[in-house]
């Protein structure tokens, strides 16, 4: 599930087994109550993530729905045969595939963005897990002035960090975003120590701001599939270590202090979750880097 700027649109992916074969139906819900079926995936394909942004080469253009799809068989976006993945978009009239040039054995897993922003993040899946399962990239088509890119070709990406955690990327604002940083163990019963790191568009050269680290939060490897969310510019929503055991409260982590507070909102394995964020001016790509304690790695 994903919400557009100011919640004017909502994208909802629903599993479908009507023909005895798993697929996914992607719906677009409008503020006027309309429901549009955008796409039904091919058998054994599912929708992994969704964002509402303009084409990065046209930041003042109309908001599009972009999403990633993945499957357990067939041929993927980069030729990876074991776990094929691809990026798609809907421009209001047709569904198109988005070309994301990557290396062999890499595939586009998760797209995340602040609604309506001129940049986004992409978590790519590495088949060999070297050095980690995922790598986080940030799109710079608009900021770099890439002339060979287009609404259906996203070619300019900046490497941000490696991570083994698949809780995705939470965007605090058009400038700031948070990554769960750490290694994912091969034994799912083992919860690794990891950190929450904030990055700033245009300031990645300075490193990141680590505002929490430890073992008390769920790392997304204990049988609970969930996505880190951001309700405002200074907090992210995560789950505690016991998330896989059943309903559990969303925990709010303060980006400035690292303090954790339980919220009244309850996460359940059956639910779909998103937050509505207000429309903001897209990032310029050159914000101030001062006032934050940056460090490496």
What does this entry look like structurally?
This protein has 297 residues and is mostly beta strands. The protein has a single domain, classed as Methylamine Dehydrogenase, Chain H. Helices cover 1% and strands 41% of the residues. The strands form 5 sheets. It has a 4-stranded antiparallel β-sheet with strand order 1-2-3-4, with no helix packed on it. It has a 4-stranded antiparallel β-sheet with strand order 5-6-7-8, with no helix packed on it. The chain has a 4-stranded antiparallel β-sheet with strand order 9-10-11-12, with no helix packed on it. Strand 7 and strand 8 form a beta hairpin. The longest helix has 4 residues. It starts with a strand and ends in a 30-residue tail after the last strand.
Which outline best applies?
A: globular
CATH topology: Methylamine Dehydrogenase, Chain H
CATH hierarchy class name? Mainly Beta
**Total beta-strand segments:** 20
Domain module count: 1
User: What fraction, in percent, of the residue positions are helical?
Assistant: under 10%
Strands of the largest sheet, in order across it? 1-2-3-4
For the biggest sheet, the summary is: 4 strands, antiparallel
Quick check: average pLDDT? 88
Radius of gyration: 18 Å
Q: Which segments are poorly predicted (pLDDT under 50) over 5 or more consecutive residues?
A: 74-81
Termini Cα gap:
32 Å
């Amino acid at each position: 599930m994903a919400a557009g700027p100011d919640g004017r649109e909502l994208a909802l992916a629903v599993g479908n087994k009507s023909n005895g074969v798993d697929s996914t139906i992607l719906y677009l819900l409008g503020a006027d109550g309309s429901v549009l079926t955008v796409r039904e995936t091919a058998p054994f394909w599912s929708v992994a993530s969704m964002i509402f942004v303009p084409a990065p080469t046209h930041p003042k253009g109309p908001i599009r729905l972009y999403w990633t799809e993945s499957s357990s068989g067939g041929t993927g976006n980069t030729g990876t045969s074991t776990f094929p993945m691809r990026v798609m978009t809907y421009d209001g009239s047709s569904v198109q595939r988005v070309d994301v040039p990557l290396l062999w054995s890499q595939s586009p897993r998760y797209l995340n963005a602040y609604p309506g922003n001129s940049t986004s993040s992409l978590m790519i899946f590495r088949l060999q897990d070297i050095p980690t399962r995922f790598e986080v990239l940030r799109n710079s088509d608009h900021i770099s002035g890439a002339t060979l890119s287009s609404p259906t070709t996203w070619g300019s990406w900046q490497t941000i960090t490696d991570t083994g955690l698949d809780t995705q990327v939470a965007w605090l604002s058009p400038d700031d975003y948070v990554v769960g940083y750490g290694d994912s163990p091969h034994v799912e019963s083992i919860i690794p120590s990891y950190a929450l790191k904030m990055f700033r568009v245009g300031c990645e050269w300075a490193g990141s701001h680590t505002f929490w680290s430890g073992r008390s939060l769920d790392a997304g490897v204990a049988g609970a599939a969930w996505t880190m969310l951001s309700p405002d510019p200074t907090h992210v929503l995560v789950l505690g270590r016991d998330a896989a055991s059943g309903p559990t409260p969303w925990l709010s982590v303060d980006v400035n202090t690292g303090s954790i507070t339980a919220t009244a909102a309850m996460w359940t394995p059956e639910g779909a979750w998103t937050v509505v964020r207000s429309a903001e001016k897209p990032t310029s790509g050159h914000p101030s880097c001062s006032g934050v304690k940056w460090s490496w790695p």
